[in-house]
């Protein structure tokens, strides 16, 4: 099967900003003046670095309390997992499931998938090209929901300010969790999915020869 | 063209973006280290019950400032209570001392007030009172109730013992002249002493009012006394009437004692009157044994030293005496009497030291001849008392021992002494050489007999001399002379001639003297009547009034 030649094979690079195909030799986009790169520079390294940061931030995000409820001057601290367990004990399984998925499952799976993609782009077997694409799409999809927890806290803090009776304050985990979400977004951004297919391309070509 | 192309090296260079995870890792590591470094101490507290204690929820507070959290509550193996593991903040570390106290603050409603209402909504918490002793304790036992006095508060802790519980309870006020200066901290029953024990605390600076002669009494409720003098009603403040309370003071006439230390024991009297009856706190027991009759020696009888009361008779130790098993030799066993001497009566400080001083003095004095005697205090009622005095003629003696009491040697006095003296007198009389004396007297009487015989002879001769004839003739002449004297006297009798003529002469003399009296009167009226004739006045003639 004869595949059409890629832009890269023809010595053309797409502008990051305006997507114009320009010659690889020209350093700047002839249309918008953006620096031209064939692929995102140091994509894997950046992605990995941000993923490591996210992993580090994930620890305090789960250990520290995400929300502090001052009820009649009695502060009650709740962590993410503590809240999930409490909701489960109270019988609110659906809410517990939502919080668990949004706060634990999504960011964690995104992290792991990204790690896997970074590894597989460099060292992975080339046969899993389609699988990698599916995984990448999953990260794209679930990434939208990963700020859910932070939003919940932000809304509660803004709404529940009943003076001495009941006050909700954000805990240290809220900041860490926001950091995790943002860093993973940046990691996903810095990941160049074309790298996955570059490898597949070469493999395909090798197969064809 | 090919030469113009830059050589591109695809060598892997470490991107600068790795700074980001590095910074995150460093910050994370620092947080971990900081947390580990500033981690507070973990202690265990034993509670009787886990009421209000919840792992992960119950706070530990000091002055209502949060300082720790209960991490775990486990049942003790012997189900005697629960042990709570508490994680404290680092700032609490220097507050953990040997005498640090913990207790659970719950809502409490009592007669003395309502406290801990906030815990109704927020749940109970553990309050901590910092201590002042050495640091380093890790396991504590919680108090049952909040301590009434803060740890390390200046003041004085005292222990009172009372025979009856009265209505004094924990938290009651201790008053001085009606002003609140302290409180009752604990009330327990001491089964060893069969007495109620109260722990009280006197706040500074009022603890300086307490000395060894201080007496405590119960002012709970109303003291109602109806007697011949009228009805007396004594009450304290409304608080003490309703809740109970204590007061203290020094009974009148008692010298102030020495300052007392923490934990000194005092007796709690039922009322102020009870103190007036027993104004002295400290005293010591002695036993004196007498061989003489104890009739009239009642418990409470005074014990005197040279007439000054120094104590009283407690009781006669008959039970102890029979308990000793007198055995066969039941006769002439001295009867022990328990006496109670109070140094405070001698106007020396009423304290423990004075008691030991008194004991030392008695020991020395007994060596110098001091003895106890039984004396009659009232001859009419036969009341007896025990008196101490010096009898230098007595040989030196030592104190003895009877059961657990020290005994003072005694000598018999009073009637018993009199008896002894009389019998000694008789003994001396017996010992006199009466036989010889009587023999000598007999001899003297025999000699006297002879003398009397000669005296009789002398009297007889005198008699004979008196009845002799010469004496008879003399009396006959005397009779004749008397007869002659009567004849002479008869010549002057009423019927005699001489008497009659003498009588007529005296009568005429009388008439003459009468005339002389008239003449004398006339002469005194008219001295010239001797020379001039008497002029007579004509008789007055009556006639009619001239017109």
Could you explain how this protein is built, in words?
The complex is a heterodimer of chains A (209) and B (547). In chain A, the strands form 2 sheets. Chain A has a 3-stranded antiparallel β-sheet with strand order 4-3-5. In chain A, strands 1-2 form a two-stranded antiparallel ribbon. Chain A is elongated and about 70 Å long. Chain A has helices at residues 43-63, 80-89, 93-122, 129-142, 148-159, 172-190, 194-208, and strands at 12-14, 21-23, 67-71, 74-78, 166-170. With 209 residues, chain A is mainly α. By secondary structure, chain B is of the alpha+beta class. Helices cover 29% and strands 28% of the residues of chain B. Chain B has 10 helices and 26 strands. Chain B has helices at 19-37, 119-122, 238-243, 272-277, 318-323, 352-367, 415-431, 434-466, 469-490, 497-525; strands at residues 42-47, 59-62, 65-75, 82-88, 101-105, 108-110, 113-115, 125-129, 139-141, 155-162, 173-176, 179-190, 195-203, 215-218, 222-227, 230-235, 245-249, 265-269, 284-290, 302-305, 308-316, 335-341, 370-376, 384-390, 400-402, 405-408. In chain B, the strands form 5 sheets. In chain B, strands 23-24-20-21-22-19-26-25 form an 8-stranded mixed β-sheet. In chain B, strands 5-8-2-3-4-1-9 form a 7-stranded mixed β-sheet, with no helix packed on it. In chain B, strand 23 and strand 24 form a beta hairpin. Chain B is elongated and about 230 Å long. In chain B, 20% of the residues are buried. The model of chain B has no long low-confidence stretch (mean pLDDT 81). The interface between A and B is medium-sized, with 20 and 18 residues.
